[in-house]
Amino acid sequence: MPPTTTTRNVRLAQLLHHRGLTPIDLAERLQVDEKTVQRWLNGQHVPHRRHQYAVASLLRADRAEMWPQADDIAARVALARAELLAVYATRRDVPVDLWAELASTASDDVAIITNTLAWLVESQPEMIDTLNLRAITGSSIRICLRDPDYQDPDAVGTDDEHAYPVRRALRRLAPLLDDTNSGGEIRLHAGTTTSIYRFGVDLLVSPVLAGVPNHLLPVMHVRESGHLGLFHRLITHSLVTWNTARPYTPAAAPDNADDDRHWPPRKPLPLPPSPPPTAEPTETSYDTWYLNDIPYDYL
């Protein structure tokens, strides 16, 4: 790996020399380690804002003269805060009307990257109907779920607990793949650590946290600001997941496919071994048992 190039903070060194101070003096005045000051001088690190103002006050100089890039960082932080409209502690705290409003009014693409979508099928059936209707009328609706046939080699036990809700969601989303529309598409991935629901310029983002039930996961509402910021970084994750997923093509459903648990069809599982046959009780053994239970006085 080539060495990282840094630019020495010449202005800070000049001001220290002009005030008759050494890096050790500055470190003692600010109560920080001397190596920290050396990193500031070598351009390896930008001090925290409170240290910037402390140095500027001590050297009677403008903070922006020594660290002009700090304003760029502050601008990026301000931009990210502007994009972050709301943070909800749990998914249950997201207003119900917000999901429906975004699904029906988004003027651009709708793209969902998640694992099962079970909660949406159960609690927001109207939203599923809205997405199906928009796909039939030509809107771009892309949904990417975890492959129900994917077997995680690191998982303990089977993946049936995950496969059932995915198969149920796939059945509810069947109109997305209607032959008469060109806007619906479903793909299957191997699993994602972040669920991203895109409705045009709005994102609802929920990270997957170990040990936390899905309905208690936090949700962020992010809106595009027109700059390369938080929104576009999240979209990058969404696009990579989508591009590496496989297209989903449903099989033809039989006439009696009414059980969501078994449709769409899944890979056959090996049958369990048959239990050993048990001997039927004989007439003699039954009589013996019956007579043994009758008091002697009744015989």
How would you characterize this protein structure?
Strands 1-7-6-5-2-3-4-8 form an eight-stranded mixed sheet. It folds into two domains: about 60 residues, lambda repressor-like DNA-binding domains (434 Repressor (Amino-terminal Domain), Orthogonal Bundle), CATH 1.10.260; about 180 residues, Endonuclease, Chain A, CATH 3.30.870. About 40% of the residues lie in helices and about 15% in strands. With about 300 residues, it is an alpha+beta fold. It is built from twelve helices and eight strands. Strand 5 and strand 6 form a beta hairpin. Helix 7 runs parallel beside helix 9.
Gist of the model:
This protein is of the alpha+beta class and 299 residues long. It has helices at 10-18, 23-30, 34-42, 49-59, 63-66, 69-83, 96-105, 118-123, 125-136, 160-172, 230-243, 283-292, and strands at 84-88, 110-113, 141-146, 184-189, 194-199, 202-207, 219-223, 246-247.
Q: How does the SSE layout of this entry go?
A:
Blueprint: H1 10-18, H2 23-30, H3 34-42, H4 49-59, H5 63-66, H6 69-83, E1 84-88, H7 96-105, E2 110-113, H8 118-123, H9 125-136, E3 141-146, H10 160-172, E4 184-189, E5 194-199, E6 202-207, E7 219-223, H11 230-243, E8 246-247, H12 283-292
Parallel strand pairs: 2-3, 3-4
Antiparallel strand pairs: 1-7, 2-5, 4-8, 5-6, 6-7
CATH class of the largest domain: Alpha Beta
Share of residues in helices: 40-55%
Arithmetic mean of pLDDT? 79
CATH topology of the largest domain: Endonuclease, Chain A
Q: How much beta, percentage-wise?
A: 5-15%
Across the major sheet, the strand order is 1-7-6-5-2-3-4-8
CATH architecture tag of the largest domain: 2-Layer Sandwich
Cα(first) to Cα(last) distance is 99 Å
What's the β-strand tally?
8
Contiguous low-pLDDT stretches (5 residues minimum) are: 253-263, 284-299
Work out the radius of gyration: 32 Å
Structural class: alpha+beta
By DSSP (H or I, 4+ residues per run), the number of helices equals: 12
Q: Please give the domain count.
A: 2
Order of helices and strands: HHHHHHEHEHHEHEEEEHEH
CATH superfamily of the largest domain: Endonuclease Chain A
